[in-house]
Structure formats: structure tokens, C-alpha cells
């Protein structure tokens, strides 16, 4: 679908993007193709079905963004706030998408590769999977990322490799002016390998805005397992469009946990899973806790291509102030995908009369022997629960905090790393009590 | 300790309590009986501060404080405890965390420091025994998946933990089998003392075989129409509540 786009930013990208990649770059042709794709797809607007509740153009035309921002010097103490207490982990620190080995603590394990994406272009894994995910082809922001990305992280867990501690990826943003940043990552988990990744961010900019358009491709080969935690908090004056595209082969297990918490102005998460092999498990869990004028849009897609796959999706939202939350849960069960189990649930707690939620399940089922369900709820505090707690001497504020935590419990309880679970519970508490 | 004077209350404009007078002194156990819809549970709700009731007349003095002017949490902190007829299930809030929060909020109100973890656990163990409360339930979500008997026992266990001056038991005996009833009643009897008062709201005389009240009141159509001792409960059991209708005609 093409729209007439007249905003200067669009022209600016097309003109600026052309000059960014030198002809001798191995990805020159790929990037030129992507830029052409972006040109034909156009920037989505409110008439674009998948973007009807998120006015992305408004956030782009406010100010001129530069298209590349080289990382400014960052010290270890500036990264320290991202640390999760009592969590034994490896750490990969990226500044504006560029891996900083001297700030990182990378595993030295045979069969585990963690490097800059820009240094991985000769790797077999890169050649096999980079920009190959079927769900990225029609995504304008993903195309833009492919055309313009500067760098990102390449992770490869080879056959049977076990990442013995979680890898904490800290995305640091430092800007001298409004910048449009495009990190690009590729994670490949080979057969029988497993690990856990925790992503979080630190914003060091002040008075300028970061627009982050990131793409991650995640490949799980046969019987591979990955826990993927994405913590979206602590970065003020930022807008994020993410696309996490997962491809699962037979018997693989992927557990995604997204926590969209206060600070960022806008978050649009595109999370899409292509199930290419049978007997897979996919858990997509999300907690959206939004305050003030925040806008968070979770756009999820589970593509059941083959029989005997299980997907389970639970997103919960807690909305305060004037916050906006959007949830789209698309499930496509192809004709061949018999014996699919696909469940989806979206529950919301509205704590302000001015907050707003839009939720849309989209189930397209073409197989006849499947179990699929979806559900949506929106509610306020149960008056009876609140009264019960107060009648035991618990003040109204403390009672509300207990109830918000209780509501979020289904999600936090799924976090399989105790220190991370504790950290998240405290974070939720902090935002709720502040209000 | 508790003095209720000419208390009138309504829900959605409908009068429910129509002039209640009641005096409960320290250490006394009062029972309020009456047919369905007479206003028994409403009285308990008004005393605990449930928001959908509007008090239109009257006053309630609790240990020198105007009870009706306090928030539900402050009433609890002053020492009023309502054991719910239908205890609420709250998934995601553990029994233990809930009790710790409640106890420490009450202590903070009284200017006391929070209980050390060790002291808290000691107190918990001691009070669990009182009502034979299954320790495995402590880490579970509040009342979630509890049987009816477990929920009611949990109410009495909470009462024991929070140590109020006045315990109001709102039909705690309803839906209990005889074993559970004995356990609950035993718990209450052990908690009885010169400083603690109870208001038992019940539909059935059976509870009063196990918890012997000092006074029995009959509530009918929003008013206390008769007051006596435990013998009155037996009389009610025998005659039912039908005679009240006739009695009211003569009032």
C-alpha cells in the first residue's frame, strides 16, 4: 500500500539514505533493495490498518533527526544504573547500537559467538539468516532499518552450546542532537543450544530526542531454547519502534517476556513468530505499565505454518494518567497446521478515566482440527477487594499497590530468573506508588 | 467500648437500619440474630465502613472516637475487625505478604516499628495453631481456591494476628460443617478476654452452643426488637422468627 507522503522527513531519509552506504559494502545491494522497498511501502499513517491507533508520523515530523550518531564516550559508571541487583550475568554494552567490548563482560565459552553484527557478515549464520525472516518483507520500518542500520549485535550459540548465565544486553543512547538510530541484531540458537537474554536500556541524552528503530531476527533451530526478556524502561525523551522476528524450527522453545514500563514517550513493538517446524512451544508474555502521556502499542503475530505447534500469549496492561495502550494479537493458522494450540489473552486494568486502551484479536484459522482461544478484559479495581484490604488496616494507596502487583503477578511470576523477577516487581511498585 | 446511638443507614436510598441502639462493654460477647434481610450484615458493614452505605442519622462511639468519621483502614487500626461473610479471593497477593502489610500498617499507626521477620514468623506459627490453619496455605494467594471452611478459618486467623479490640463476625458460621464450626468457635473462645469484645452476627442458634454470648439481640426490620441472654437464642430456635412480625405490630 502506498500513501502520498509529503513530510520532509521522508524525503530526507530517501536522500540521506542513498549516500550512507558505500558501494563496496557487502550489503550494498541488500540496502539498496531495502530502501527501494521502503520507498514503495511508504511511511504508515492512520489509514494503514496495522497502524491505525498509533500516529507514527506525528512523532517523526516534530524535529529534524540526524540519521547516524556516532557513539559519544561512555563510562562504566554511566552504564551502572542498568545493572540488575544480585543477578549473575554476562553483559554486552552497546552504545547507539555499537558493541563496546571494554564496557562488556562477554562469555568466553567455546561455541558461543558474541560480536558486532558488522564483523559477522562472513559468518555462515549471517549469510543464511540475515534479513531473511518472512515477516520483515512488508514492514516499512524494518526495510528502513535494513537500508540504514549502523551496527548491532550478532549472537550465535552453536550446536549443544549452553549459555550458563543470562546475557544482559544494555542499550545505551548518547546523542548530541535529535537522532534516528537503527540498531540491528541477529541471534541464532543452533540445535539443542539454550540461553537467556535480557535487554534493557539507558538514555544519557538530555534535551534531545532519540528515535530508535531496531530490528532483531531470532532463529531457533531444532530443539533450541531461548528466554528473551525485553525491559523497556528508564529512557526518557525516546520513541521506539522495534521489530522482533522469530523463526522456530521443530521442538524449539521460545519464551518472550516484554515489560513496557514508564519513561519512553512511544513504544511500538512488532513481535512476530514464524513456526516452521512442528512440536514447538512459544510463550509471549507482556506487561504494559504506562503513565502520563505514554503510548505503547504491542503488535503481535503468531504464524502457525505447520501442525502440532503450541503458542500461548498473555499480555496485561496497567494504565494510569492519560496513557494509551494498544494491543493487536494476530494468529494465523494455515490449512496444514492441524493440531495447533493457540491461546491468547489480553487483560487490562484502567486506573484513570483519561487512559485509553484499544485491543484487537485477529484470528485467521484455516485448519479444522485446532484449539484456539482469545479473550479481552478491561476493568478497574475490584471495590470489594479494595475494601477487604482496607478493612485489615491497609491504607488505600498500599492496597492499590498490592492489587496492581497482584494483577501483574501472572506476568512477573513467569520470569524464571529470581533476581530479575525481584527487580521487575520493585520497578512496578516504584511506578505505581509514585502515582 | 462501642456505643451505637439511634443509627440509621440506607443503601441506594432504601432505609436498612432504622434506629439501632447498642452498647458493648469491654470483654463482652454480644450476638445479633434475626431473619434474612433484617439488617444484620448491614450493621456489620456500616461499622466496618463499607462505602455503599449512607448513614443518615445517629452516631457510633468506639473507645472515645467517632467511628463513622474514620476511613475503613483507620477503623481497623483503631481496633475494629470484621470477619467477612464472604471473604474475598485475591489472586497474586500472598496470604503472608498481605498479613505482614496489614500488621505493619496497624503498628505504624500506633507508632510501633515494623515486626522483625523472625518475630512475625513466630507470631504467625502461634496463631495458626489457634485455628488449626494449614501452614501450606500461608504462601498461597489470599483465599484463592480455599474451601469455605478454610476461608472462614483464615478470617479468624487474621483476627488473631491483628489482635483487635472488637471482633465482628458476620455469619462466620454459615456454610460451616460441625468440625470447622468447632475449630472456629474454639479459636474465638481462646481469644476472648477482659480487653476484647465480640459481636457475633448469626442466623442460627447453633454457633451460640459453642460461643456463649453475654447478650443476645434480635434484629428485625432494621431495629433491635428484643434483648436477652443466651436463653433468648434457644427460644428463637424453637419459635423461629415468625412471632416477630406479630410482635412488631404491637411495638
UniProtKB/TrEMBL annotation, chain A:
UniProt cross-references to InterPro entries, sorted A to Z: Fe-S_cluster_assembly_SufBD (IPR055346), SUF_FeS_clus_asmbl_SufBD_core (IPR000825), SUF_FeS_clus_asmbl_SufBD_sf (IPR037284), SUF_FeS_clus_asmbl_SufD (IPR011542), SufBD_N (IPR045595)
GO biological process, one term: iron-sulfur cluster assembly
Span of domain SUF system FeS cluster assembly SufBD core: 177-407
Span of the signal peptide: none
Domain (SUF system FeS cluster assembly SufBD N-terminal): residue spans on this chain: 24-169
Pfam family, one: SufBD_N
Family the entry assigns: Belongs to the iron-sulfur cluster assembly SufBD family.
Descriptive protein name: Fe-S cluster assembly protein SufD
Source organism per UniProt: Chitinophaga agrisoli
Gene that encodes the chain: sufD
UniProtKB/TrEMBL annotation, chain B:
Alphabetical list of Gene3D superfamilies matching this protein: P-loop containing nucleotide triphosphate hydrolases
Family matches, as CDD domains: ABC_FeS_Assembly (cd03217)
ABC transporter domain: residues covered: 2-246
InterPro entries: AAA+_ATPase, ABC_transporter-like_ATP-bd, FeS-cluster_ATPase_SufC, P-loop_NTPase
GO molecular function, one term: ATP hydrolysis activity
Segments forming a coiled coil: none
Record keywords, A-Z: ATP-binding, Nucleotide-binding
Family to which this protein belongs: Belongs to the ABC transporter superfamily. Ycf16 family.
Protein name, per record: Fe-S cluster assembly ATPase SufC
Gene transcribed to yield this protein: sufC
